[in-house]
């Protein structure tokens, strides 16, 4: 018996084999199918995918053989990997290299052997695909050719497996990175929202006081700065969801004025402050309803307009909305935002929608965060929409958006007209006094909420930690309870879960800076009826309370 010498490139060969990370892995169907097919084609009882390491031949697939490995010194495959062509032994008992081999004279009685080396592109032989019989024989040319083809297929499977594993590792790494980014954004969002709630709420309280107009002006600046920070936090969360494909379309029927009323009032005030003109031209009839994602549509219009207002210091900003109808219920919603700002140079225009692309238009001293336009682009891709930009330096820019939508026409009933005339900012109409609990460990947050509730017939009790909140709710009856989520002593969700079994329990508002979608879902599932993100929006609060007032006046 002769022991096969080591290949000249043994070190590189072993390194390549180990890089596959395949040794001692479980059987896999794709390799087992190869060996089964090889046995059928060659009419051989045994077929192996054999890989040679330092001391053994190890079988990734072992059709017709129970063993998973044998010593390298006894392996026929150790000889096969020394050449480039098919290695064939018709009768091992008559071959001096093998006639005294224990694998020949004992189990599994290797008499006939044919193995094709499994070679990588750089001629590194990892092992063989081989067929074995316990009697002398030959293979015809067709069988040899088929075995060669199966050998090539085996090498492809080895490479595909490595690529698959590499992709899986990269996928897990990306998932970990996304989870870390998500956790970081959630933590930053929470930590910023809490002080912003105090800042925006207190600035509104100060503005309601009889103070000089100059002080009002300063307070407006504080409020605007706070809103810029809040928008930046919201944009960061939105962009994160869009990048992870975690954002989903939520199509609903709505009247466009639901989007445009608050939008128009807000930018009317913003442009007035900057001493420029703002115009909204809505050509869509009040009887027309659209089926689309209302929240994403609002975000697109607001971001584009905010950008135009930010960079326009003289002249005007115009929003033109129209509907391009087709023969059926399908249509295109057309939105044009035009400004008389400094314009956008061609080189900036080409990278306008790239993430974190800060740009400073000519003649401007402020730059963008690079988030708003990225969100617009990603949202439009999700909605199958498109955006085009036309701009001239020194004359201004026009952003034209086209979004596919479905439309229908419905006349308002008298009751609906009545309801549409009632603005959300109107106070909720409670006819009986209500007992209300405000639980928050932050005194300023409690003050802001109390100020919003001051005009209502509410008897308010306060608590500043979770333990006290639970005690108060257990000893007295309340109609409504505003609970901070992360209170010391007891988490707000724990309190809500404990109340879920009570027959008479207050209507629960979750007041929190935890605003990631999964956080909101978890909080609402713990037993809260309403979710109030910080900083509080008075209109949103009154809208929720108006809903409660209808059921419990």
Automatic annotation (TrEMBL):
Limits of the Response regulatory domain: 435-549
Sample GO molecular function, one term: kinase activity
Record domain Histidine kinase: where: 187-407
InterPro entries: CheY-like_superfamily, GAF, GAF-like_dom_sf, HATPase_C_sf, HATPase_dom, His_kinase_dom, HisK_dim/P_dom, HisK_dim/P_sf
Keyword Phosphoprotein: yes
Record keywords, A-Z: Kinase, Phosphoprotein, Transferase
UniProt-listed Enzyme Commission number(s): 2.7.13.3
Modified residues annotated as 4-aspartylphosphate in this record: 484
Transmembrane parts of this sequence: none
Pfam families, per the entry: GAF, HATPase_c, HisKA, Response_reg
Reactions catalysed, as given in the entry: ATP + protein L-histidine = ADP + protein N-phospho-L-histidine
Protein name: histidine kinase
Organism: Leptospira limi
